[in-house]
Amino acid sequence: MRRDDLACANCSGPVSEGRCPVCRAARDQYGRGGGGFYAPLWLILAILAALVCALALEARFA
């Protein structure tokens, strides 16, 4: 979930706008980045495991 998708429970506005102190605190907690790609940990581990398996198969059949 990106910061742009979050709604503030205090003022019901988007967190990215920072209308109230609660919004600004949440915005600072999630950083001021431009909404880049954030991969979950399980996705990174799955890709790493697939690469290890592919390298093991390549080494076995080479």
Describe the structure in your own words:
The chain has 62 residues and is mainly alpha-helical. The protein has one domain. 50% of the residues lie in helices and 0% in strands. It starts with 20 loop residues before the first helix and ends with a helix.
Quick take:
It is built from two helices and no strands. It is mainly α and 62 residues long. The longest helix is centred in the C-terminal third of the chain and has 21 residues, at 41-61.
Task: Pick out its properties.
mainly alpha; 62 residues
What is the secondary structure topology, with strand pairs?
Layout: H1 21-30, H2 41-61
* SSE-based structural type: mainly alpha
User: Which regions are unreliable across 5 or more consecutive residues at pLDDT < 50?
Assistant: none
Percent in strands: under 5%
What's the mean pLDDT score?
A: 81
Order of helices and strands: HH
Helix proportion: 40-55%
> What oligomeric state do these chains adopt?
single chain
Radius of gyration, CA atoms, in whole angstroms: 20 Å
What characterizes the major β-sheet?
Answer: none
The N- and C-terminal alpha carbons lie at a distance of 42 Å
